[in-house]
Amino acid sequence: MMTEARRAHRRNVHESVTVLDTMTEQVLGRVGNISESGMLLVASGSLREDALYQLRFEIIDRTGRMVAIDVGAHVVWMGSANTPGQSWAGLRFLTVEERQLAVLRHWIARPEARH
Questions:
Q1: Cα Rg of the chain (Å, integer)
Q2: pTM for this one?
Q3: CA 78 to chain centroid
């Protein structure tokens, strides 16, 4: 039997949440799942394993407003996806502004996010 080693609750993201590299202004892919400490990125752009990135994605806050979330992230692992031109990347968040982290926590914890 496999045990879950993650410490933070993850939200599977079924809607399209685009992830932008803020240094190059290029779209890197979309969020596959996310926690307050990291994300699975379905990458369509090129990434390097063990590299650091400044990323931005937008989510809806509790008032229905789109909020940009800026994170500093470390690519911990990468793998091939079944779709040509895509890969998986596991990222650990290094920096998230406290106000944005509060919005992210609320978004992850929403009851409809558990489906």
A1: 14
A2: 0.88
A3: 14
